[in-house]
Amino acid sequence: MKAITTITDTTVPIMKENIDTDQLIPKQFLKNILKTGYGRDLFFDWRYLPGGKPNPDFILNDADRKGASILITGDNFGCGSSREHAVWALKDYGFKVVIAGGYSDIFYMNSTKNGLLAIILPEDERKILANIPADEKITVDLPNQQVRYKDYSFDFDIDPLWKHKFINGLDDIAITMGYEDQIKAFEEKMPNFN
């Protein structure tokens, strides 16, 4: 997993409530078992018109928002089915951080396990962030657990273990391998039943 410490970048505001995983990545695109290739189909039903042309009214098709890695959104983000592909699609598109009012439990866990930083901020703070111009950047400072924009500074909570994993770029396997010497020492004490 790639480490995340401080990210300063532009944003994409999609201030809708209850954006579910079928809206993030519709079921017809779940055939790929790799974690890549989903970004082009992120928000497919909102992003494309019938026939496949980009919907000019959807913000991801706004040229001024291209390349932004921070998504600002509503409450209960990632609800619906438990598909991990929704997180893969957000990451493959280029999002590194999602700032919402809340998440479904499964989506939140899928995010943390796949290196997508999911932050919870109250609505009044998200509205300030959602209204900044497309060419202005905000800073997400994970070590200090703050989101900053000009004179604003918003604190957020994160489980200390997940914070450690993000800052050090560790997934569950890497955490386990950190105990490799202890695992070997334990195995050497085990009786041989051959």
Description:
By secondary structure, the chain is α/β, with parallel strands linked by helices. Helices cover 30% and strands 16% of the residues. It contains 8 helices and 8 strands; from the N terminus they run ββααβαβαβαβββααα. It has helices spanning 21-24, 44-47, 85-93, 105-113, 123-130, 160-168, 172-177, 180-189; strands at 6-9, 11-14, 70-73, 97-100, 117-120, 138-141, 146-149, 152-155. A 4-stranded antiparallel beta sheet has the order 1-6-7-8, with no helix packed on it. A 4-stranded parallel beta sheet has the order 2-3-4-5. Strand 4, helix 4 and strand 5 (117-120) form a beta-alpha-beta unit. The longest helix is centred in the C-terminal third of the chain and has 10 residues, at 180-189. The protein is globular, with a radius of gyration of 19 Å.
Instruction: Please mark out the parts with pLDDT under 50 across 5 or more consecutive residues, or reply none.
Output: none
Give the CA-based shape: globular
DSSP summary, beta strand count: 8
Name the structural class.
alpha/beta
For the largest sheet, list the strands in their spatial order.
1-6-7-8
Radius of gyration: 19 Å
Give the SSE string. EEHHEHEHEHEEEHHH
Average pLDDT number:
94
Q: Helical residue percent?
A: 25-40%
- How can the largest sheet be summarized? 4 strands, antiparallel
Looking at the chains present, what oligomeric state does this protein adopt? single chain
Compute the number of helices.
8
Query: Which range does the strand content fall in?
Result: 15-25%
| Head-to-tail CA distance between termini | 39 Å
